[in-house]
Write a structure and sequence with these properties.
Elements: H1 3-31, H2 36-39, H3 42-49, H4 54-61, E1 67-72, H5 87-97, E2 101-107, H6 113-116, H7 125-140, E3 147-151, H8 157-166, E4 173-175, H9 187-198, H10 204-214, H11 226-237, H12 252-266, H13 277-280, H14 283-295, H15 302-312, H16 319-326, H17 343-349, H18 351-361, E5 382-386, E6 396-400, E7 424-429, E8 432-437, E9 447-455, H19 458-466, E10 474-478, H20 483-486, H21 495-503, E11 508-512, E12 525-530, E13 547-551, E14 556-559, H22 563-568, H23 576-583, H24 592-597
Parallel strand pairs: 1-2, 1-3, 3-4, 9-10, 10-11, 11-12
Antiparallel strand pairs: 5-6, 7-8, 8-12, 9-13, 13-14
Length: 609
């Protein structure tokens, strides 16, 4: 283990000690209780299992067979989650063969950010994470389960399921992915068409053709955004069956991995190698997730989500921890938007097994941690394959990950990384604290100094671009986009016009208290600025023409104004009409309490504390 990574882990452990001790005591008390069928009244038990077939009811009540919960984010609105439709039947069959029973304990909502980008629905996206966490808790609160299988993949869904599960920390849990869609139109070609459309050089018909060629089937989107970053982090945390992340939904191996998830969960219940999720997810496992994110240039959204995940296990991390880890972690992968490859090509080049093996050997991961598979993180430095093509049911075995990268343009060994440090940086200064993803930003754009153009909405910036008013050097300040203002929507619609302007040679950058997608790329963007403008943050003081310096090399974000004058300048208030618009319509009224009580982005945008 690298000395500095060990020191950062120790600091997190010490910072979290009191809360973690109390958390573990609570889950130990829950774990010490008799099974639900013995603990509950007869009427409670009868209600719990009334819907089961008679033989299954006998098995769980009289024979005390293990009873597994399924919490599913299935819907066919999300291409990534559409394959989950038939998983309950498959899981029940796998459990029956192993002498266990299964109940679908509940479903949780799952929205597609790709559908809602730039639309009012995106203002519910971040809050959907905590809604999913609460839905997970409601599903598991029936309290008759020996373990849980969690079916979810995409942006807020995995963090929400994980937060909910950690509030039932006495239960063993295994995450069950479904895999990426097949490669279609390349992500870089798709981006080019978007930029041409932003310039008015191609029409909506050509844009629609390109988008449908890119997003064309079941599975996750193939770029390395938040959804696929989720899968990388779950592998690094040891919460998947090893190597399950990036196998196509319709491959025979996918069924074998799903069946193996059931066997894996049964192997960590109280009857076997008891590994409750609340004990598995300790500070070392959280650091392993952070390291995997940094080493692969993953989604900036996880600088919010994994703060909240850690907090659910009574572990406290912050952006300083991310920044200091980034300085120690080599960048080992280039997957779009940080490169040209998609996740299918990443998998073919060595995938998660290769990256985790390299990080482990380089002393960047804690190897001696609990995982749902036996053997610790070393088990995740392997690749799954079908045991026998004709076996019934299909079965899986593992082989060592490739010793060498199968494509050094996509993944590299730790001794020859793309960069000696990770792809995320912390920025501080008189504008607050922010983060920037630099792994895809050209080096000559890591420092931008230019006058500010201030917008109180992304629509205002897009309108200015369409009117030809942005043909100059500038730093766009897009404010009142934080959690309290409007739910902190992603501002991914800003990427094409800003990329067009950068391509014309202008010095451009974005500074915002909102989020950018995990697909944010080559335009420098200081995001998640905290405190947010609505909470009195410094972005509310910025005026058109103020000179701003965004320096990702030295980690600075400043308005270049005399300190006394800056301190004396009043904050700009959000237009009441805009505030009213943010609060109503398309379900936004229901989330008013969350907007009022949500914590800052750096504190995880948590609504449940």
């Amino acid at each position: 283990m690298k000395t500095r990574i060990a020191e950062i882990t120790a600091r997190i452990r010490e910072r979290s000690a009191d809360g973690r001790r109390a958390y573990l005591a609570r889950i130990d008390a829950l774990a010490a209780r008799p099974p639900g069928t013995e603990r509950m009244g007869c009427a409670n038990v009868a209600h719990a299992f009334a819907g089961m077939p008679g033989d299954q009811r006998l098995r769980v009540v009289a024979e005390r067979a293990p009873n597994l919960a399924v919490v599913s984010a299935y819907n066919d609105m999300l291409s990534a989650h559409q394959p989950y439709e038939n998983y309950p039947a498959l899981i029940r069959d796998a459990a029956r063969r192993l002498g266990a029973t299964v109940q679908v304990a509940g479903g949780v909502p799952a929205m597609c950010d790709g559908v809602t980008q730039g639309l009012p629905g995106m203002e519910l996206s971040l809050f959907s994470r905590d809604t999913i966490a609460m839905g997970t808790a409601i599903a598991l609160t029936h309290d008759v389960f020996d373990g849980a299988l969690l079916l979810g993949i995409c942006d807020k869904i995995v963090p929400g399921l994980l937060i909910g599960a950690l509030h039932f920390g006495h239960l063993p849990c295994v995450f069950v992915p479904a895999g990426p869609m097949a490669t279609g139109l390349s992500n870089s070609d798709k981006a080019k068409v978007r930029e041409l459309h932003a310039q008015g050089l191609v029409g909506r018909d050509k844009l629609m053709e390109a988008e449908q060629a890119a997003y064309h089937g079941a599975g996750t989107c193939t770029f390395y955004g938040t959804a696929n970053s989720n899968q990388m982090l779950l592998e690094a945390m040891g919460l998947h069956v090893p190597g399950a992340a990036f196998v196509h939904p319709h491959a025979p191996l996918r069924e074998a991995l799903t069946r193996e998830a059931v066997a894996t969960l049964l192997g960590i219940t109280k009857r076997q190698r008891y590994t409750p999720i609340g004990r598995l997810v300790d500070e070392r496992v959280i650091v392993n997730a952070m390291v995997a994110l940094l080493a692969t240039g993953g989604s900036t959204n996880h600088l919010i989500h994994w703060v909240a995940v850690a907090r659910a296990a009574a572990i406290r991390i912050d952006w300083t921890d991310f920044a200091e880890l980034s300085a120690e972690v080599p960048l080992l992968a280039r997957v779009y938007p940080n490169g040209q490859a998609d996740v299918n090509q990443f998998q073919a080049a060595g995938g998660t097994g290769f990256v985790l093996r390299e990080l482990l050997d380089a002393g960047c991961l804690h190897g001696e941690v609990a995982t749902v598979a036996s053997g610790g993180i070393a088990a995740y430095a392997q690749s799954p394959v079908l045991a026998e093509a004709e076996a019934e049911p299909v079965q899986v075995r593992w082989q060592p990950a490739p010793v060498e990268s199968l494509d050094t343009a996509i993944v590299r060994p730790a001794a020859q990384p793309f960069s000696p440090s990770g792809g995320l940086k912390l920025l501080t200064g008189n504008l607050g604290r922010a983060v920037i993803k630099v792994s895809a930003v050209p080096e000559d754009r890591h420092v931008v100094e230019a006058p500010a153009l201030v917008f109180d909405s992304q629509e205002a910036l897009l309108k200015a671009f369409a009117a030809g008013q942005l043909e100059r050097d500038f730093i766009a300040v897009v404010r009142f986009q934080g959690p309290r203002a409007n739910g902190m929507p992603e501002l991914h619609k800003l990427t094409p016009p800003l990329a067009v302007l950068q391509g014309k040679g202008f010095k451009v950058a974005l500074v915002t208290d909102g989020r950018m997608s995990g697909a944010s790329g080559k335009v420098p963007a200081a995001i998640h600025v905290s405190p947010e403008a609505l909470a009195g943050g410094a972005l509310a003081k910025v005026r058109d023409g103020d000179r701003i310096r965004l320096d990702a090399v030295n980690g600075q974000l400043d308005v270049l104004i005399d300190d006394a004058a800056w301190a004396a300048r009043p904050v700009h208030a959000l237009d009441p009409a805009q505030a009213e618009g943010n609060a109503h319509g398309l379900g936004r009224d229901l989330f008013g309490g969350m907007r009022r009580h949500v914590s800052s982005a750096e504190q995880g945008a948590i609504t449940w504390l």
